[in-house]
Amino acid sequence: MTQLTWLSHASWLIETDSQRILLDPFFAENPAAKVSADDFADATHVLVSHGHFDHVADVAAVIEKSGAQLITSFEIAQWFASKHGVADPLGMNIGGTHQMGETTVKMVPAIHSSSLPDGSYAGTAAGFVLTIAGRRLYFACDTAYFSDMKFYADGVDVAVLPIGDLFTMGIDDSIAAIKQITPQVVLPTHYGTWPPIEQDAAAWADKVRAETSAKPIVLTVGESYPL
Q1: Which residues is 23 bridged to in the sheet?
Q2: Least C-beta-crowded within 10 Å: which of 14, 61, 104, 161?
Q3: Alpha carbon 99 to chain centroid distance?
Q4: Mean pLDDT per 10-residue interval, the chain, length 227 residues
Q5: Which candidate, 186, 115, 108, places its Cα nearest to that of 141?
Q6: DSSP state for residue 219 in the 8-state scheme
Q7: Domain residues of the chain, as ranges?
């Protein structure tokens, strides 16, 4: 069984029969987080979409405790190897695919800036399409709405889209994205952490139901959704 857990902000736990995959872990400085790196000593992989602090802050701590493999852009992989001694990170680039056990990871475009906490160049921001047991999951990560989403994520089973606005697309653009990629199920992310990205997720879900064919799922922090 595959299960998604929203860990607050843009952090997710993807659990399969044999893997515990963390996406963009951000806990210690996150006012909405209810977990810490200590809770993921059994993580198997860490996916990082881009270099901003609210997506990488707990990466090194999680990997130190778990020995999980880091999978991210080439530049971020090299930075963590150099600055934090992370062993054997896998650096990818847009369009690339990697098979990690039962999960296929494809790195797809995101329209967003990316730099690391010390100002280092972090390559191109990305999203991910995961294929697990025949199901396709699209994590758009931090991005604006753009038409090529349809090429990479058309008809996915599950889409996780940002709705916070200001730094990413907001509610209205997320609706446009849903209409374009036609997922079966859609979940919101990257909202509610601080006042600038507060959103009414229930109102978002109402718009999804009214304007698209997708099923909206709004999780509370720490809540899980089984696929």
Answers
A1: 12, 47
A2: 104
A3: 18
A4: 97 97 98 98 98 98 98 98 98 98 97 98 98 98 98 98 98 98 98 98 98 98 97
A5: 108
A6: P
A7: 3-222
